[in-house]
Specification:
Layout: E1 11-16, H1 24-33, H2 37-40, H3 47-52, H4 57-60, E2 65-71, H5 75-85, E3 89-90, E4 103-106, H6 113-121, E5 127-129, H7 137-148, E6 153-155, H8 167-170, E7 178-185, H9 189-204, E8 208-213, E9 219-226, E10 231-237, E11 246-251, E12 255-259, H10 263-280, H11 287-305, E13 311-312
Parallel strand pairs: 1-2, 1-4, 2-3, 4-5, 5-6, 7-10
Antiparallel strand pairs: 7-11, 8-9, 8-13, 9-10, 11-12
Length: 322
Amino acid sequence: MFKPLVQQEVIRLGVIGFEEGNGHPYSWSAIFNGYDPEAMSRCPYPGIPDYLNKVPKEMLRLPNALVTHIWAEDKDEARRTARASLIPHIAERMEDLIGQVDAVLLCTDASEHVKHAGTFLEAGVPVFVDKPMADNEADLATFIRWFKEGKPFMSSSCMRYAKEFMPWHVSTCELGKLRYASITMAKSWERYGIHALEALLPIVGPGFLSIRNTGTAERNIIHVKHSSEAELVIANIADMYGAFGSLQLGGTAGNAAAMFKDTFYAFKTQLASFVQYLRSGERPFPFEETTELIKLVIAGRRSRDEGGREVKLSELSEVSVR
């Protein structure tokens, strides 16, 4: 069982892996360690130094935790990240981090999450799993088994922590009965649909029933049915970067709209919730919410592959956290 790091003055973190198009090893590490401006200027994801440079130095870092180790199959990329984000140790093997770090930030592709997370969870090392936690039913079932066994891990999208959406996490009463919610997203459904879904869940709550994806791999147009009777629509279009995280809400008494803008705040708050989990042993939100959303990701791809058929979540394999 996981023993919370209550007495640990500084939590040592390791960063594992890279995923094409994903700069989390740079940005997440900088939020803990600070960064070298010159080296970070050469980061292959220019949006990262852009938003980091806007943050006052006294507001950048999370206290009492440091990224001390990094491992990736691409050693050149690991060295570039270590220089940019002030990571002192580059591991030759992933397994070398066991005994050297207190927890791991896993940034590999979803298809590799079980393989890499398992290495650390079986050794009792807590893991933060980048979104989406899994992309198929077999891997989801493995994570659920690990949860039942008390293995220490959590996963989330930073969109759960978007400050622009937080007023409606508290209440949508001013809108009357919520009848409609929509959000737009870029990139792929398989990797970024979880952002849209996890932005909506704190507003509408659990209770997703079915999903229909009538689009294509590049243009996913999605209708989700929810037990609240609110109609949910997601447009997940590959190159629609200009509308990344545009939220609309409509109710019987009012409407609201918001645009996701502060990436740094969302990442920092997301990582702070993991550190709090490490120190307290208490999850910041129920694991059942994560499993419900991963089922939607899987079902949304299935619907698209089957010509836009409505796929009920009940059709997926009986994997349950109960």
